[in-house]
Amino acid sequence: MYNDNPTLKFGKEKTIEEDKQGDVFFKEQVANKEDKDLKKFYIESYGCQMNFSDSEIVASILAEANYASTRNMEEADLILINTCSIREKAEQTVRKRLRIFDKLKKKRPGTLVGVLGCMAERLKAKLLEQEKLVDLVLGPDAYRDLPKLIATAEDGTKGINVHLSREETYADINPVRLGSNGVSAFVTIMRGCDNMCSFCVVPFTRGRERSRDTFSVVAECTELYQRGFKEVTLLGQNVDSYKWENPESKETVDFADLLELTAQIAPDLRVRFSTSHPKDITDKVLHNMAKYENICKYIHLPVQSGNSEVLKRMNRTYDREWYMDKVRAIRRIIPDCAISSDIIAGFCGETEEQHQETLSMIEFAQYSMSYMFFYSERPGTLAARKYEDDIPLEIKKRRLQEVIRLQNQISFEINRKDQGRIFKVLVEKESKKSADDLCGRNSQNKMIIFPREDVQVGTYVYVKVQEFTQATLKGVLVSEEEYKNSL
Ligand code: SAH
Ligand code: SF4
Ligand code: F3S
Q1: Which fold has domain 7-161?
Q2: CATH topology for 422-486?
Q3: Distance 305 CA to ligand 2 centre (A)
């Protein structure tokens, strides 16, 4: 399931599978409609958490238009694929899925196929030319148009809307929680990105940065809490540049303020966020994290490269020293905070020495985990226009392997240090390996497995760690008192 990890899962090509709970939430939303009146849609999502979140907005728009969701694409009247363009491989995965939908469409003529998301935005009408089976193409800001375009497509006219907006935040749409475990949910607080990192396609596929109305964010989180959710993750490509002006009081709310407002909803509602940009994360954010127990002690702070010259070519607008200072500030203000990262190996012109600096940064920052990639040139980006993609594939892959090996060692060592410690864990689900165990995450975002006993999903438990691997911790249940004494 995609929400194994609350951070933005960029480029991890996974699909949404609705579980029973997801169906229940969907039914709540369409409760006043008879099943027989409803058409069926099937949706798959790829790419980052924002795409998964958008699919929940799409589901909500479709519910209004008399569509019910199905997990079985064979019975769908409408098949949607929410796509990612971040690396070439992500687009190839989508094209493969389209071949499968094509076969299905031949068996069931009349089924509509729609491409949503970043690939729709990047390729626009070209997608309709290249992929004959596609009936609908909608970019990330055009989802309100979906019912209208479906209606035209049903009459045989292919529909496209890839208009990027400066205002759209879907603030008034209450997302249908697809594939939810009923415990943690994702809440989009801003859309687009103004950063123009030279390797990145996102500013072209998602448009200008805009922040969502603070009241609507807090209202959505409050409603989730009232429905029994215990964790919200505030989402944006660069959450630290969140900024919203109250039209009445003219006061501005920054990300640190929003974080505080969300934390104040309830002490047992955990708050997470992703992604932070090293140039924008402020000490005010760090102090608020330290102040509230329920703001999780975990920051995803992508470094991309450990070398200042490469960072300059990447247009990241910080250098190695600046990044190291941010890590020091986090360690000083929130001593128990875990930090994770995104790393690109083999960017244009990267020398062996510069690659070594990425490795030494991993050592320095002691990341609990990282998403690691080799550079994939994206058409139209600054890097594609300005720099030669000159690192041979074998070298990119070898450097990536070195990055992965080192990160794995460090994750393992960090987990070793957790042995014997007691953590507060929010129970999420059954462990994949055994029905006798449950699992959930600690504040630092680490998955911890423990015996089921009579524990309920959605509650907090205290677990003393006894075993560990590179990815997970395993332990036994202890009392709250024991936990408090250990602090
Ligand atoms: N907004 C986030 C990341 C968005 S994209 C941030 O600024 O940190 C997610 C990750 O994909 C990036 O952090 C980067 O590591 C990776 N990525 C983006 N473009 C890429 C490319 N062209 N090739 C390889 N990796 C890329
Ligand atoms: Fe892409 Fe940079 Fe924006 Fe992240 S901050 S989405 S890497 S342009
Ligand atoms: Fe991919 Fe678009 Fe997200 S390109 S990583 S789905 S913003």
Answers
A1: Rossmann fold (3.40.50)
A2: OB fold (Dihydrolipoamide Acetyltransferase, E2P) (2.40.50)
A3: 14
pLDDT digit string (tens) for 379-405? 999 999 999 999 999 999 999 999 999
Q: Which residue has a Cα nearest atom 1 of ligand 3?
A: 84
Ligand 3 mean position, distance from CA 305 (Å): 20
**What are φ and ψ of residue 344, in 5° steps?**
-110, 125
Please tell me the predicted confidence (pLDDT) of residue 484: 96
How many helices (H) and strands (E) the chain has is answered by: 16, 21
CA dist., res. 79 & res. 44, Å (int): 8
Ligand 1 touching residue 391 (CB < 6 A) = no
Q: Given this chain, do its domains 7-161 and 328-417 carry the same CATH topology?
A: no
Are the CB atoms for 86 and 48 separated by under 8 Å?
yes
The alpha carbon of 43 is separated from its chain's Cα centroid by a whole number of angstroms, namely 17
Would you list the domain boundaries of the chain?
7-161, 181-296, 328-417, 422-486
Q: What is the Cα–Cα distance from 467 to 431, expressed in whole angstroms?
A: 15
Given a cut of 50, the residues of the chain with pLDDT beneath it are 1-32
pLDDT at 34: 55
d(CA 449, CA 437): 7
200 C-beta closer than 6 A to ligand 2: yes
- Residue nearest (by alpha carbon) to ligand 1 atom 19: 200
- What does the DSSP assignment read for 100-147? HHHHHHHHSTT-EEEEEEHHHHHHTHHHHHH-TT--EEE-TT-GGGHH
User: What residue's CA is closest to ligand 1, atom 1?
Assistant: 237
Specify the fold of 181-296. Transcription Regulator spoIIAA (3.30.750)
Per DSSP, the residues of 396-440 read: HHHHHHHHHHHHHHHHHHHHHHTTT-EEEEEEEEE-SS-TTEEEE
113 close to ligand 1 (CB < 6 Angstrom): no
Atom of ligand 3 nearest to the CA of 119: 4
Q: Which fold has domain 328-417?
A: Transcription Regulator spoIIAA (3.30.750)
| Ligand 1 center–CA 305 separation, angstroms | 11
Quick check: CB of 375 below 6 Å from ligand 1? yes
Nearest ligand, measured from the Cα of 90: 3
Q: Which residues line ligand 3 (CB under 6 A)?
A: 10, 47-48, 50-51, 84-86, 117-118, 201-202, 205-206
Closest CA to 275 of 246, 243, 310, 303: 303
